[in-house]
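// run 5 | inverse folding | seed 20
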């Protein structure tokens, strides 16, 4: 079984979805602390005038640096209306807005208490839109040594999940000790992602690294799947 592990991300970028698509199971790393520089509760979108803008879900920041991500409560009551209205302002004139809106509307209607709930749901919807068959599990559901850190933590999670191949991001090369995985009979592969380009309305130069919804609003579900899977199969490979 090929396993990937990553913090959840609000309507994630294509690079994370690429790694998930190449995995049999994706583990939501929801027991780590939220980082102010991360995309756990936010992502980047393009405004109607071609500027990059964040959409962020606010949360209760009391002691958040010492709390698990899965325990953080949402602090705003109007974030759903604001986000939906903002997406309409940014993408409402895009040809495929209505098609994609039908899929994402539950995020802006359902009731949530904890931050992890809409974030993970946004990932499930993104995976559905791009036709990812990958299974999903959560870190907090597993039994493992919770005193471990970095390399040892990842190894403990992979073993607990019962995987024999761990698909890592290239950013983890700085701390990954591949030999310790090999000693446990686990193969480590590093995912290489090449960002596909697609037409972006109101843009003269392509803007990479933003929410996957940008691709979907611009080209529609069917074409987005073709573009995404072509990148998965033909360009991005394990190394």
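// decoded
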């Amino acid at each position: 079984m090929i396993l990937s592990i990553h913090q959840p991300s609000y309507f994630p970028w294509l690079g994370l979805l690429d790694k998930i698509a190449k995995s049999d199971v994706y583990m939501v790393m929801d027991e780590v602390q939220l980082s102010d520089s991360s995309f756990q509760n936010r992502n980047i979108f393009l405004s109607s005038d071609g500027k990059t803008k964040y959409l962020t879900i606010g949360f209760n920041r009391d002691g958040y640096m010492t709390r698990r991500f899965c325990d953080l409560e949402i602090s705003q009551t109007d974030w759903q209306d604001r986000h939906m209205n903002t997406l309409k302002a940014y993408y409402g004139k895009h040809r495929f807005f209505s098609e994609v809106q039908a899929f994402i509307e539950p995020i802006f209607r359902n009731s949530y208490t904890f931050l992890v709930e809409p974030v993970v749901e946004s990932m499930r919807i993104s995976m559905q839109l791009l036709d990812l068959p990958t299974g999903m599990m959560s870190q907090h559901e597993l039994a493992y040594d919770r005193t471990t850190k970095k390399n040892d933590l990842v190894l403990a999670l992979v073993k607990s999940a019962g995987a024999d191949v761990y698909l890592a991001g290239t950013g983890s090369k700085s701390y990954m000790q591949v030999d310790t995985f090999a000693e446990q009979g686990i193969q480590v592969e590093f995912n290489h992602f090449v960002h596909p380009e697609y037409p972006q309305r109101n843009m003269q130069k392509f803007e990479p690294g933003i929410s996957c919804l940008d691709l979907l609003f611009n080209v529609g579900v069917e074409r987005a799947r073709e573009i995404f899977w072509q990148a998965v199969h033909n360009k991005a490979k394990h190394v």
